[in-house]
């Protein structure tokens, strides 16, 4: 993907984010992650049924990278089982860390393939997935109860 | 003004984050170098010339600070590591013993973390009640709102003289007289005021004042706690050790020194103290009123220019200090500061350690510009040029 296209996709997701804002929060699991700079502040809402993410939204203020990464992530994960979401997450982290990864699996998330060149932005790009992992964990605790 | 004195200004940066910390002039840097190259010794310890010279310089700094803030007595000046430590000493060394359960402490939602969290801890520890004075539509503290917030239980008002987000100057003299009439005390966080406007603790009748050297040209790690002598006498040290005791015996008899040394345990930041002296002398030579005038002139210039750009939102047009807070519409503050950083312009993005202020101005994160004496209109012109071009922001930062 060339740099201009990457930028276009990111900006489009900042200006027209997917599933930003949630009206009815009932049955959604919520998690928030603060970046270490404590500026980015995203609430993620995930609805899980029969081990599957059936819906997800986000709210909050964050930088362009975090906002777009959240938007793109949500497009990808709705409809996935938890295992599938985690496997996507693993692939994504491998890309961020410049390890070998399967780019076909990542779709639009490939726009962050160069983020390692700006180490301070890695956190921004991984923040949504860290938050997703929190919601998945919460869902497991609740089931164990 | 005086740009040639600041080596950092050769580094090709436009530095607009003076509220966070300031650059240092050669005179201050030299005073620190002199301590490490010409007369390194501990203070209050040796009988040799070197040590006595250091003693003299260290103690003479107390006089310089005393005169700078118009205190009555050098004993009222305690060296600390900064505003944060000074405020913690006030809360945990004095207020903890002075206040009773149910006593009320008034702060605002625009205070810095260091003037919020110690009070909230003390609330948990001993059951005082921390309350917020409401701010007016321009996010300011008014005498009227202070009056209405004081109850018979109000024992302390603790406020920044100038806030670090909104930059408003509080009517401290009037507030001090209100709380004194209620038999209470006033604590002033001077971190953003002492470097920029004239401080007169006697005229304002301030009971406690905290400020940091690094925000006023001095090194990091040095600050001041001022308090009226009668209160300092009652303050308990929060550190015990060398330098603050006069005697201790194996039978556990202990005697502490008189003020101010009783509150300065352990080897002090001597280089910092000497640097603070040089910084204050530097500021006095220019004149703090002149520095303030310069900042206000820059601020008004910037305001006029910013208003010419369509998509800039300014949040504190009314402020009377050299601080301006803004956002580019629909752009996250951190993205704006990254964009400016590309042009070597340093501004602060975020919530500026005053996380509660979002309840007041309804905006969580902003970009802050804070001036000091060495900033210029040419620097502002460069900033404006870059901001006018803000359509390019994502091209630059992504
Ligand atoms: C209003 C205010 N109070 C307190 C502080 C804390 O100062 P320091 O970090 O030097 O202790 C700051 C610094 O950011 C400040 O702006």
What does this structure look like?
- The complex is a heterodimer of chains A (145) and B (398).
- In chain A, a hairpin with a 2-residue loop joins strand 2 and strand 3.
- The radius of gyration of chain A is 15 Å and the shape is globular.
- Chain A has a three-stranded antiparallel sheet with strand order 1-2-3, with helices on one face.
- Chain A is 50% helix and 17% strand.
- Chain A has 145 residues and is an alpha+beta fold.
- Chain A has one domain: Alpha-Beta Complex (Sufe protein. Chain: A), CATH 3.90.1010.
- The relative contact order of chain A is 0.19.
- With 398 residues, chain B is of the alpha/beta class.
- Chain B has two domains: 260 residues, Type I PLP-dependent aspartate aminotransferase-like (Major domain) (Aspartate Aminotransferase, domain 2); 111 residues, Aspartate Aminotransferase, domain 1.
- Chain B contains 14 helices and 15 strands.
- In chain B, strands 2-8-7-6-5-3-4 form a seven-stranded mixed sheet, sandwiched between helices.
- In chain B, strand 5, helix 6 and strand 6 form a beta-alpha-beta unit.
- The two termini of chain B are 36 Å apart.
- The model of chain B has no long low-confidence stretch (mean pLDDT 94).
- The interface between A and B is medium-sized, with 17 and 15 residues.
- The complex binds pyridoxal-5'-phosphate.
Task: Map the helices and strands.
The complex is a heterodimer of chains A (145) and B (398).
Chain A: H1 3-15, E1 29-34, E2 41-49, E3 52-61, H2 64-77, H3 82-96, H4 103-106, H5 119-144
Antiparallel strand pairs in A: 1-2, 2-3
Helix pairs in contact in A: 1-2, 2-5, 3-5
Chain B: E1 14-15, H1 26-37, H2 49-69, E2 77-80, H3 83-98, E3 104-107, H4 117-126, E4 129-132, H5 143-149, E5 154-160, H6 172-181, E6 185-189, H7 201-204, E7 208-212, E8 223-227, H8 229-232, E9 245-248, E10 254-256, H9 270-286, H10 288-307, E11 312-314, E12 323-328, H11 333-342, E13 345-346, E14 348-350, H12 358-361, E15 366-370, H13 377-388, H14 393-397
Helix pairs in contact in B: 1-9, 2-9, 3-4, 10-13
């Amino acid at each position: 993907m060339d740099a201009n296209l990457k930028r276009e996709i990111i900006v489009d997701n900042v200006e027209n984010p997917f599933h930003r804002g949630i009206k009815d929060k009932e049955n959604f699991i919520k998690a928030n992650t603060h970046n270490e700079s404590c500026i980015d502040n995203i609430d993620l809402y995930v609805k899980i049924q029969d081990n599957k993410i059936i819906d997800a939204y986000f709210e909050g203020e964050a930088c362009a990278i975090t906002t777009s990464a959240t938007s793109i992530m949500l497009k990808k994960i709705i409809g996935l089982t938890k295992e599938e979401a985690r496997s996507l997450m693993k692939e994504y982290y491998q890309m961020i860390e410049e390890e070998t990864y399967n780019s076909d699996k990542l779709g639009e998330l490939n726009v962050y393939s160069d983020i390692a060149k700006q180490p301070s932005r890695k956190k921004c790009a991984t923040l949504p997935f860290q938050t997703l992992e929190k919601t998945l964990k919460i869902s497991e605790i609740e089931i164990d109860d | 003004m005086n740009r040639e004195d600041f080596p950092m200004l050769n580094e090709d940066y436009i530095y607009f984050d003076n509220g966070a910390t300031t650059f240092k002039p050669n005179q201050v840097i030299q005073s620190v170098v002199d301590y490490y190259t010409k007369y390194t010794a501990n203070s209050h310890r040796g009988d040799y010339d070197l040590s006595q010279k250091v003693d003299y310089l260290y103690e003479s700094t107390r006089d310089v600070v005393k005169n700078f803030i118009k205190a009555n007595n050098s004993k009222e000046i305690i060296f600390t590591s900064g505003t944060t430590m000074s405020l913690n000493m006030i809360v945990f060394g004095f207020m903890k013993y002075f206040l009773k359960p149910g006593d009320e402490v008034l702060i605002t939602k625009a205070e810095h973390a260091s003037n919020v969290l110690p009070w909230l801890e003390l609330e948990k520890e001993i059951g005082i009640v921390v309350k917020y004075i409401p701010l007016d539509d321009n996010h300011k503290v008014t005498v009227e709102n202070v009056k209405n917030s004081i109850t018979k239980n109000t024992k302390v008002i603790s406020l920044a003289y100038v806030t670090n987000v909104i930059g408003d100057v509080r009517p401290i003299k009037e507030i001090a007289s209100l709380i004194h009439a209620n038999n209470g005390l006033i604590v002033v966080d001077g971190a953003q005021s002492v470097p920029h406007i004239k401080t007169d603790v006697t005229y304002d009748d301030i009971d406690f004042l905290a400020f940091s050297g690094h925000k006023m040209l001095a090194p990091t790690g040095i600050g001041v706690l001022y308090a009226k002598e009668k209160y300092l006498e009652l303050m308990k040290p929060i550190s015990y050790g060398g330098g603050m005791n006069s005697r201790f015996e194996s039978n556990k008899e202990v005697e502490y020194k008189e003020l101010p040394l009783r509150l300065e345990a352990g080897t002090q930041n001597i280089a910092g103290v000497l640097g603070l002296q040089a910084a204050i002398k530097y500021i006095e030579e220019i004149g703090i009123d002149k520095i303030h005038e310069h900042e206000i002139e820059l601020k008004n210039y910037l305001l006029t220019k910013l208003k010419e750009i369509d998509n800039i939102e300014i949040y504190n047009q009314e402020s009377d200090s050299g601080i301006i807070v803004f956002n580019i519409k629909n752009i996250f503050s951190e993205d704006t500061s990254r964009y400016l950083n590309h042009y070597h312009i340093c501004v602060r993005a975020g919530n500026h350690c005053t996380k509660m202020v979002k309840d007041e101005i309804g905006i969580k994160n902003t970009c802050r510009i804070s001036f000091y004496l060495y900033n210029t209109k040419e620097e502002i012109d460069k900033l404006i040029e870059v901001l006018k071009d803000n359509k390019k922001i994502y091209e630059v930062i992504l």
